[in-house]
């Protein structure tokens, strides 16, 4: 059965995205050209430009996928916890653990803010992990676990701390040891938010 144009389009985008993700993770944004991505994906450079206007556009697509995947890991960890409080801690831990993955480090934490700019990077973060954090904090305020105060400032402060820790872990010479130390510091910090 012949593939439809839509199926062909989706397959091409998927091939380009998966190839670019691997190459950006292995070599960094600045060291990967569109010609290499197209050749490795098995498509023409014209096909690449048909779907993405530039290397930065393709990278933004890959970054959104990586941030979405991290957001899913955070949500799964939080949902598996026995209550909302443990879910908040589990989600924070899942985010920090994801930050030690070399692919996530390179694409999301090192190249991401530099390539798309801080404001766009924050917007993508808000759509993924930060959204789950705000939802968790809102539920905890509703349950009376956290003091009844505005959620947005709490979410921004905690998200900022988590992102700073993640960037630090991405540049750490000993990420395993620094992740353990960060996890030890996390619980008392989050505990201070409790009612």
From TrEMBL:
Regions annotated as coiled coil: none
Highest taxon in the source lineage: Bacteria
Keywords carried by this UniProt record: DNA-binding, Transcription, Transcription regulation
InterPro entries found in the cross-reference section: Homeodomain-like_sf, HTH-type_TetR-like_transc_reg, HTH_TetR, Rv0078-like_C
Residue range(s) of DNA binding per entry: 33-52
Family matches, as Gene3D superfamilies: Tetracycline Repressor, domain 2
GO molecular function, one term: transcription cis-regulatory region binding
Segments forming domain HTH tetR-type: 10-70
Record SUPFAM superfamilies: Homeodomain-like
Keyword RNA-binding: no
Pfam families: TetR_C_41, TetR_N
UniProt-recorded name of the protein: TetR family transcriptional regulator
Protein's organism: Kibdelosporangium phytohabitans
Organism phylogeny: Bacteria, Bacillati, Actinomycetota, Actinomycetes, Pseudonocardiales
